[in-house]
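Summary for the steering committee. The consortium agreed at its last meeting that each partner would contribute one worked example illustrating the joint modelling workflow. Our contribution is presented below. We chose a case with several input lines so that the handling of multiple components could be demonstrated. No manual editing was applied between input and output; the record is shown as generated.
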Amino acid sequence: MTQVFNFSSGPAVLPHEVLLQVQAEMLDWHGSGMSVMEMSHRGPEFGQILAEAEADLRTLMAIPDNYKVLFLQGGAHLQFAMLPLNFAPVGSTVDFVNTGHWSKVAIKEVSRYANVNIVASSEDKNFSYVPDESTWQRTPDAAFLHYCSNETIGGVEFNHIPQANGVPLICDMSSNILSRPVDVSQFGMIYAGAQKNMGPSGVAVSIVRSDLLGKARSDTPTMLNYKSYADNGSMYNTPPSFGIYVAGLVYKHVLQQGGVAAMEAKNIEKANVIYAAIDASNGFYHCPTALADRSRMNIPFTLADQQLDQAFLAGAEARHLLQLKGHRSVGGMRASIYNAMPLAGCQALADYMNEFAKMKG
Amino acid sequence: MTQVFNFSSGPAVLPHEVLLQVQAEMLDWHGSGMSVMEMSHRGPEFGQILAEAEADLRTLMAIPDNYKVLFLQGGAHLQFAMLPLNFAPVGSTVDFVNTGHWSKVAIKEVSRYANVNIVASSEDKNFSYVPDESTWQRTPDAAFLHYCSNETIGGVEFNHIPQANGVPLICDMSSNILSRPVDVSQFGMIYAGAQKNMGPSGVAVSIVRSDLLGKARSDTPTMLNYKSYADNGSMYNTPPSFGIYVAGLVYKHVLQQGGVAAMEAKNIEKANVIYAAIDASNGFYHCPTALADRSRMNIPFTLADQQLDQAFLAGAEARHLLQLKGHRSVGGMRASIYNAMPLAGCQALADYMNEFAKMKG
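What follows is the complete predicted structure of the assembly.
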């Protein structure tokens, strides 16, 4: 098979070892004679898979006992509606930091059910930075404070956890969960779609403080009530069992590699390789993100001469460096380098960037 | 590997050939160098997978052009809330046929958002039959009429499509879709979770008449509005791409086998093998379902002497006949024999049933 490096922003590259194991077990999981896709979710085999996935995620993130770990469907998108229905009483106000596309999509949906106060926004500079926390205009009695810890399109990442100030802090961590240690106890809830750092699309995870459950609005659809999942071990209905299985293998893989602290060290090294190629290019390449807020997961960059964009992408494809085209709102290129992207992939991209700049610069 | 026959009610057995193909393509789909799990859902590769899945399902079910085919998440359960939010104005009445567990779960959720009129129920005889349509007490201006075409627990299957009488007919076809031909044009909507006859859990399908879209209640979460999926080719957000890929392979497999008419012939033959074992047992085995309404997909049966249940199950396990324990509300055994269960599996079960009855009877 062709060796490629896949810089997709999600669904994204998975660990090679995980894919090999999924392949090996496809027709017969652990001597059961069944594929994981064929197992009753109520049987002991899947029960073990689910329990191990939860336990491993708890270990990886050091999740305190007073937090529930829920496996859901519908991605982060479904949770944009679940947030106000579960956590914001009718007529209440919720606080949002607006740092980019994913913040905006969440705000749009949440504002249909609650008053939204934007505590700060970086829209004035095309979402290229994280607004300084000292400037945030907070609602003292907000139902919650929401932020997106990594914006995949702008390539902007929080390098700290904001102060909660007594309000439940809720974070969309879809694109940098498991990429670095976080102190879960500072959050009311962390949620994430799996398809960037955890597994295939179709699975989402919520890590929610137990005392926040049970207060959903009376008209909340049962499948949009976090309590339905918490009370039934994520099996109120048939869960996305195969996706949970793959996510569980990813958790084991991260544990084997040394956990999230080891991933962080590796991710810093990986990101530095590409940022160095940008910064050493004498303006041939440009990253629009403020230096302090550069993402380790998604690196957007433009070419000074946009006429070269197509040639750059074609040359990258020829070297099997895939899915580098940037989002239309930023233009240029974007390299998404989640946990499963090996250092060799970042080096291959940096080498190509250097050579392309030398050839065309 | 062990050759087993897996009678799980869902997630359930998948075609062996499909699993082999999934295994072969796991690390490199069609020379792309990527697993389907790693592909951007916006890229040409997944675009092809999704388009073929929809086209093949349209071919299989002869879906008219004025119907949308939508791929969703959340199973049938999520749609229980979507039904009233999308199709029943506030204060309206919806009609339900109550033929068992899945009817009841749907009714419970829908009744939170609309008035529910039970046109007929078979609860008086533990959901062992389909109420005669001539007795149904309909609401003339109902927002819709809902039924479940196959109840997996009671083993009760509709052998005809009810009269719509000018009201949109909505069917939960989760457990017998693609097992027989149906005239889609008689329906307002057909919906189904994939994990019985179509693929892994985490994918659901809705086949909805276009003119019914766009009338959702104003407070409907965007992810619960069918129009969000219809307007965006099932990609309003990241779809459960791997599950759709597997479902697409199942569709191709059914097409190769001759389509749903061929499946029906095979399913009749399969079911007859097991029902014959029950009926020839002189009361050693008993199927509680009314003769005319026996399901071809799920066959519940009890042993006259319940003391033998454990021995029956243990002997079945020893022969690699798996997941035969019945639902607690019916007791005894249940053999789920969806499309992907081979005739050999039904014969192996019938042979074992005959021998067990001979030995213990």
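Chain B touches chain A through 67 residues (CB under 8 Å). DSSP finds nine helices and 14 strands in chain B.
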